[in-house]
Design a protein that fits this description.
The complex is a heterodimer. Chain A has 15 helices and 2 strands. Chain A is mainly alpha-helical. Chain A is globular and about 80 Å long. The termini of chain B are far apart. Chain B has a domain of 201 residues. Classes of the chains: A mainly alpha, B mainly alpha. The interface between A and B is large, with 48 and 48 residues.
């Protein structure tokens, strides 16, 4: 199915992307505050999901601890902004740099002796949990009490990245657009081909002269830096960060649910998947609260996750494309038949 | 001072044996099926609740409670594999991850709905009995748990080494296709393996029920602890799980003595990173994972 999608001509693909984001921008201008703030989170997770997608879908490296990078981004923005009044822009850049470095170190630790696959995945989750516990016990960053941003004054200030919910919606929308376009561009560049070669057959790629060790470190640090930028903005949007909420396992899960549920390795998959999964997560939470039974939400969410992976093995987006293809195919077949007849007549 | 240290080390070793049993359950499932059970901690917590209720209702010794937990959790694991997990065994790891995260949410939700979020103090007579051995003063509950765990680990490895089923299990782990060719009933081997793995977790949970307050939120900690233990020891290795469990148990005990309590939870991860720097595949890591 992925092949079919790839065969669509370039202008058409970019046109579809622009259309989707134009619609999202319109939605952002007219919707009410609740929908906007929910969609903001969805778009941020689209961006972070895109970073995860880059790492597994193109680079072939599985991370189940992306919360580590998300949390580092959020904390560097928060510490610089809250403690020293420095603009979040600096925090975002610094967070991306630190997360990229940590990603590189993790990759180096794991891949220098060719420890790969599930070992690396378990290492990422262990690193994320280690960081979460350390931040929880570290008074300088607020410990378990977390850090609180100053309440927004409502006036838009791009230099300090402060504004109302609509402002953050457009920040998230821009990030998501950059994420989708960026991964698309990377995947068609030299790096994209090298990484896919490395993903499909490490040994063969090496035999052709690709230094896979360096490229693995590169793809993981780029992914980590992207996740950190998403995390920095997520922290600003939420207004407060706590180790459990920004570095916990549920963040790692939410990051990878978008791409997997939406369709791995596709451009729109993470967007569609986050659109489906994150509002669902919120709705289930509300459902559990309204019945007053703790645990009901996680039963429902867990069951839905299992069912989606069970019945839509390649994700929602490829299923949609398939459905579209099934509607389109008869028409296409008719046209091609018609052309054959015309050609015969001409001849 | 010396006796304090000895006491701490001894209690670390004792709890380490139980951690070893938890890790063994994870490693046996991974070794045979190449599946990482991210709901392992929930299975430990099931065991804790089984231990809590059986001891409370029937007032039976903890070892009998562990036997009940073994039977229940074996059946649970067997059915779970046969109904759900087997559909995902040949899928990529990230799909399995989502399925198991789904299962883990499901199980912890069931625990929350059934027992509520509040910790239940499981303290019974047993929790306060101590035994003096030379300079050591040890919890009787810990000794019982550690002995049972140790005996079980030994018995299980002997069973897998010498019995006919053990041979077929190891054959399935070494070469699935080869096993199918010579007529092994691979689906049954997988289901039994998952049952044994769950039973290990359940028994360990029942054994520690006098020591930990029963609480649904314990599950995540146990899952992560089991991961750290098997990575330290080497995924898919029996001796590794045992040694990893002992290392983590002792490290936790020493950390609680030397540093703040929050360090106790962080230290296993720090240890993990150090061990990965020195020995990337853990103590007894398999060559190819």
């Amino acid at each position: 199915m992925q092949k079919k999608f790839d065969q669509t001509s370039d202008p058409k693909r970019w046109g579809a992307g622009v259309l989707v984001f134009a619609i999202l921008a319109m939605v952002g201008s007219i919707s009410n505050a609740y929908i906007i703030s929910l969609l903001t989170v969805v778009l941020l997770f689209t961006f972070m999901g895109q970073s995860w997608n880059l790492m597994l879908g193109i680079g072939g490296q599985l991370s189940i601890g992306h919360a580590l990078f998300v949390g580092i981004g959020a904390y560097s923005v928060a510490i610089l902004n809250i403690k020293y009044g420095i603009t979040p822009w600096i925090g975002l850049i610094l967070g991306a740099a630190i997360a990229g470095l940590i990603g590189a170190v993790l990759a180096w630790l794991s891949f220098r002796f060719e420890v790969r696959g599930i070992y690396f995945a378990l290492l990422t989750i262990a690193a994320a949990e280690f960081a979460r516990i350390m931040f929880g016990g570290w008074d300088y960053v607020g410990g378990m009490q977390g850090l609180f941003f100053q309440a927004p004054t409502g006036s838009m200030d791009i230099a300090m990245l402060r504004g109302d919910t609509r402002f953050y919606y457009f920040v998230a929308l821009t990030l998501a657009a950059i994420g989708v376009a960026g991964t698309e561009m990377i995947s068609r560049s030299y790096l994209g081909y090298v990484w896919r070669a490395m993903r499909d057959d490490d040994d063969a790629a090496r035999a052709l002269g690709v230094q896979t060790f360096r490229h693995k470190i590169l793809v993981i640090s780029i992914s980590a830096a992207m996740a950190a930028i998403g995390g920095g903005v997520l922290g600003l949007v939420q207004g407060a960060i706590f180790p459990d909420s920004i570095m916990g396992m549920s963040i790692s899960v939410d990051v990878l649910i978008g791409p997997v549920v939406g369709g791995l390795g596709t451009a729109f998959g993470p967007l569609v998947g986050s659109m489906a999964a994150i509002p669902l997560h919120h709705a289930m939470g509300a459902l559990g609260d309204s019945f007053g039974i703790p645990g009901l939400n996680s039963i429902a969410y867990g069951a839905v996750l299992i069912l989606v992976v069970w019945f839509l093995p390649d994700g929602i987006w490829p299923a949609v494309v398939r459905l579209y293809g099934a509607i389109q195919l008869p028409a296409r077949v008719r046209i091609s038949k018609l052309r054959e007849v015309e050609n015969d007549r001409a001849a | 001072m010396l006796s304090l240290w000895l006491n701490v080390l001894a209690s670390g070793v004792l709890i380490g044996l139980v951690y070893g049993l938890v890790a063994l359950g994870l490693t046996i499932i991974f070794g045979v099926m190449r599946v990482v059970n991210f709901a392992h901690g929930e299975m430990v917590v099931f065991g804790v609740y089984i231990g809590y209720w059986t001891v409370r209702i029937w007032d039976i010794p903890i070892i009998a409670a562990a036997a009940i937990a073994a039977v229940i959790m074996f059946l649970f694991g067997y059915l779970l594999e046969a109904l759900v997990v087997k559909r995902f065994v040949n899928r990529p790891h990230h799909y399995q991850f989502i399925v198991f995260i789904g299962l883990s949410l499901l199980f912890s939700g069931v625990l929350l709905v059934s027992f509520g979020p509040d910790p239940r103090p499981t303290a019974s007579q047993l929790s306060f009995q101590t035994v003096a051995v030379g300079p050591l003063t040890l919890d009787w509950a810990r000794i019982q748990a550690a002995l049972t765990a140790g005996v079980l680990i030994a018995a299980l490895s002997a069973y897998l080494k010498y019995s006919a089923f053990g041979r077929s299990l190891r054959a399935a782990a070494d070469n699935r296709l080869g096993g199918l060719v010579v007529g092994l009933n691979i689906p049954r081997v997988y289901a039994v393996t998952f049952g044994i793995g769950s039973a290990c977790a359940g028994v360990a949970g029942a054994l520690i029920s006098p020591l930990f307050d029963a609480q649904p939120y314990l599950a995540v900690d146990f899952t992560l602890l089991a991961f750290v233990t098997v990575i330290v020891g080497g995924l898919g290795s029996f001796g590794g799980a045992l040694l990893g469990g002992l290392t983590i148990g002792v490290a936790e005990a020493v950390a609680a003595l030397m540093f703040t309590p929050s360090m106790k939870t962080a230290l296993p991860y720090a240890l993990l990173i150090i061990i990965l720097i020195l020995r990337p595949r853990g103590f007894f890591g398999a060559k190819e994972v």
